[in-house]
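Changelog-adjacent note: as of this version, every example in the card shows the full chain rather than a window. The one below runs 123 residues end to end.
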Amino acid sequence: MNKVFRSLILAVAMCVPISMPVGAVVGLGIGCSSTQQRQTVNTLFTVGQGVDAAYKSYLDLVVAGKIPTNDVPAISQRYQQFQQVFSAAIAASALSTNAPPSPLVAAQAAQVTQAIDIAKQRK
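Full-length structure tokens:
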């Protein structure tokens, strides 16, 4: 399972009452104790999904031979840096209802997607 989704599952699990079955929580869309915490997790999830989709799409183009492999190491390194920052942000949001998404998460996400865009332009 992807690190992003493992971190997200951990965050949601930390704000779900222990007595409530996880299936019920997922099915009902319930989990975090506050609207702020829920919004933070949703925002982080959206950012994580966007970066994952961009990275996977980029790798698909590389494998298909449509983009050269020259930028793969740099983009992969940026993606891994994003994963580390993202995991820390998910953990912080689960522990505090006042933890907004970190500007560092947005900056790391932008670096990954910008590097991918530049690589795609070099075809």
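Structural remarks: The chain is about 75% helix and 0% strand.
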